[in-house]
## 1
Amino acid sequence: MRKSLAVATAIAALTVGVGQSAQAESKGYIVRLWVPAMNNFDDSGCPDGRNADAPKIMTYTLERQGMGKEEIAKFTAADVMTQETFGKVAGQRGIKDGKPVNPYIHPLSVPDPKIRLDQAKEAFGFNLDGKVGPLDYVDPITKEVGVDNMAARVFGCFDRTRGTYEAPPGNQTFRWSHYSAGNSWLVEVTNNSDRPINWENDANIQVKFYRGQQIPLLSAGGFLRNATYTVDPHKDLTKASVFKGKIVNGQFVSERTPQFTMIGSTRIQPVFDFKSALMRMKFLPDGRMEGFVGGYLPTKMVYFPFGDYAQAAEYIGGMDVPGVYQALLKNADTDIDVAKNGARTRISMTYLVRGEPAFI
């Protein structure tokens, strides 16, 4: 099987200029899951309760507009409030230059609702800055301290974005598997040499991500195993995002890479642009792989899918969208990129990645 994979990958290398020796051993995957890594197994991380749902968002919007409590109760009753009525009020609750504006396009036009942050002690990720701070986590698997994952704090007390390792956030999992056009991500594990890879311990490994030309092929059980994919030939997409590192006790552990970038889609996130990124990956007995990618992402890009879903994210998803934006700004935790006004523009975040074996 590995010989077949090596031949298939070598052909792809000659076609798109991967630059790999024709004799190098490699293994390919199609990414079947790419979602924020969350660890919300109980409510201990939200001692003050979850964040506001649609009726509560509507309630404090109408309170700011001066409506009385009895009137608000009637307006927000389950048999009265619809997505349309919600959108007419909450969808124009921003105020800019004295006029109502769309709060999803202008999230700073709304008073900060001060969303509740996750207070848990453990979350998945990496110690990105080499320090241990009061808001850092401990990784529940590796037990590494100083884990930087402030996005998990921002999203940990919203019903829509909570999840666990075994049951990742449902809405984001659904979007990855159903809005697959443009989200065919391919992963190649290689040693760039003519010797076989030692899948238990190997000191010279590269994990390369590519954009696929085809949408993922599906079977009744999900992503089809051992399907063949082609690297997208577009000149801006053929460049691999590479993690260099080693396999230790059957797990790939990367060195730090200054930047890791992959194109997504508007229904998920247009671009995943990590700075100071790290990765770890396990190779499972059934041929699959799973692991984590962490780094610092632009706050505006993390916000994009929520702003894009706009009032639906609030009415259906129970997300205070402007509140999400303001929380991302307040909890941005790196000085890698700083705006002209001195504000931090990136936040630490970790993604769970799982892959099915594939030919590239």
## 2
Amino acid sequence: PHAREVVGDPGPALDALPVTALDDYRLCPRRFYLAHVEGHPGAGDAMARARRLGRVVHEALARHLPADPGRLARLDPGLPAEALEEAAGLVQRFYEEVVFARFREEAEAWEVRLHLDLEGLRLDGRADLVGPAWVLDLKTDAEVRPEEHRLQLWAYARGLGKAEALLAYLRHGRVVPVALDGLEKEVESVVNGIRSAQFAPTPSRSICVPCPYLPLCEEGRRALED
């Protein structure tokens, strides 16, 4: 199926969104539309598996569960055994690796909810881990792409009053700081685009190749053929 023309056609009123919607819109307004207006989950079993694995890892860490596949199976009984083994390995990396030591030691709260109002648009989020002056977002992604999450991290830092925002890539054993200076103007531009219902696609190879909505986007497929 093809996504219909959406410039100037906002569909349902968008008064509240998850903070992740900011980066979806910045990457491609059509991606935002499909995810947050039409509510499409994205195409492909691999994406669904990755989301489930990520949820298990996040919940295990927030509840301080041991890195045991059998225990983690209780969080998602239908998740395949190999995925549970993988999730247990990622949990263990956070518990043991030196690069994450600061955050283990300074942690004040897990799964902290926040709300941010921007020009009448309510953004809802839940920060993975919060410390005295920082907020940390845990990623189980296969690739390190901090640019895809920087507005989300800005919203966490702003909503919780933290000066430092960081991404922890568990698969790679890396912590990547997000520079917050200047992001407020980007956020304002995104909010204005959402408010004015500008949802035309911005196709490019770098955006379209990993996009879970590519099968629904004729412009994206065309961009990869050129």
